[in-house]
Specification:
The protein has about 350 residues and is an alpha+beta fold. It contains 9 helices and 14 strands. It has one domain (about 5-175, about 190-355): Glutamine Phosphoribosylpyrophosphate, subunit 1, domain 1, CATH 3.60.20.30. The termini are far apart. The structure holds aspartic acid.
Length: about 350
């Protein structure tokens, strides 16, 4: 009780003193209070065409925003051909698939995440259970896996033949001073086609605002391929890989989680939107912050980050954006998915830099 009293007093004192995030008085209303356009909008990373369509269909039929985005990303989590998420995701350095996910439900302000969970194809569903069926926000590793088992998620093999083969090629090519021989080293067949998976990021983030202005989001991933066992990226961390404020908007991310984790950038994007920035400007400002704080060892010769990072965001008014550190990477244009009532479509991300240099 004493703690609660103290917290209330501190908040009251802060409001009285006019202290708030980024110098804005804490008592100031969020800039975006009502929606001029009561049209639901869903945004996601570029791999979310079907996810956005599913989420849109569900919110249009009155389903809760969080259930809608989770159902959307479940399609990708269960797709064995998407090697960045759920079933078929690329494993850690020991060949074990460990998944990260978080969810945030605007109307109830509940949030949940799981990190390095094993043997569950749909970690987003477990993240929702953490949010609604525990008094915690984040469960990781063995504890997260056991929690999923307690809720009836049977142990599932997440490695597919293809993802196992990619991991094996990576392991065989790590060093010529161990006993693992690749087919080329053994004088056998070429491994053409596997090179692009040597180091691989990939994730789906999906956010929605419905016709009532309720907002939710989810992020789910197998994380960085061949990571050290137990590594969690930004995806399960509220404020980094995902952040939702029902009064303002939502933001989630894909790309180098370590760069996002140290800036809590999804939180930053939502705070900038709270202060009136358009989603696109908010996301570009967050990317600028990250680029400006990147350690020298992660900079290109041209002084730019040697990694990519992307944000997908929307506000309560239904304005949205995708923004990428790079507009073009290895000849591929940065795109995100939006659905505002018709078919899902790709749009180009706003970019902080055109290309790596
Ligand atoms: N952000 C994810 C992570 O760092 C990976 C990704 O989005 O590609 O785990």
């Amino acid at each position: 009780m004493a703690n609660n009293w103290n917290r209330r007093e501190i908040v009251k004192a802060g409001v009285a003193a006019g202290i708030g995030t980024f110098g804005v008085p804490a008592s100031a209303p969020a800039v975006i209070r009502s929606r001029s356009m009561l049209r639901p909008v869903v945004v996601s990373s570029g791999n979310g065409l079907q996810a956005c369509a599913k989420a849109m269909e569900m919110v249009q039929s009155g389903v809760d925003t969080l259930d809608a985005v989770i159902a959307g990303v479940n399609i990708v989590e269960l797709d064995p051909d998407d090697m960045s998420v759920g079933y078929g995701g690329l494993p850690n350095e020991e060949g074990v698939v460990q998944l990260d996910s978080s969810v945030m439900h605007g109307p109830s302000r509940r949030a949940g995440g799981v990190g390095a969970i094993e043997g569950v194809k749909t970690p987003s569903k477990v993240a929702k259970l953490v949010a609604f069926r525990t008094d915690h926000v984040l469960l990781v590793g063995e504890g997260a896996t056991r929690f999923a088992r307690a809720h009836g998620f049977g142990a599932q093999e997440l490695l597919t033949d293809r993802s196992r083969e990619v991991w094996l090629r990576w392991k065989e090519n790590l060093s010529d001073r161990d006993d693992w021989l690749s087919p080329e080293q053994a004088g056998e067949v070429s491994t053409a086609g596997f090179e692009s998976f040597v180091r691989h990021y990939g994730t789906i983030n999906c956010n929605v605002v419905d016709a009532e202005g309720n907002i939710s989001g989810v992020t789910t991933t197998s994380g960085l391929a061949f990571k050290i066992p137990g590594r969690c990226g930004d995806s399960p961390i509220i404020g980094a890989g995902l952040y939702v404020d029902n009064e303002v908007g939502a933001c989630g991310s894909t790309g180098r989680g370590e760069a996002n984790l140290v800036e809590c950038a999804s939180f930053l994007v939502v705070e900038l939107m709270r202060n009136g920035a358009h989603p696109k400007d908010a996301a570009l400002a967050a990317l600028q912050r990250i680029a400006g704080k990147t350690a020298p060892r992660l900079l290109t010769d041209g002084g730019r980050p040697n990694f990519n990072l992307r944000f997908y965001c929307l506000n309560k008014a239904g304005e949205y954006a995708g923004a990428s550190m790079y507009g073009d990477l290895q000849g591929r244009t940065a795109r995100f998915v939006v659905n505002d009532g018709g078919d899902s479509r790709h749009e180009d991300c706003a970019a902080l830099f055109d290309a790596m240099s």
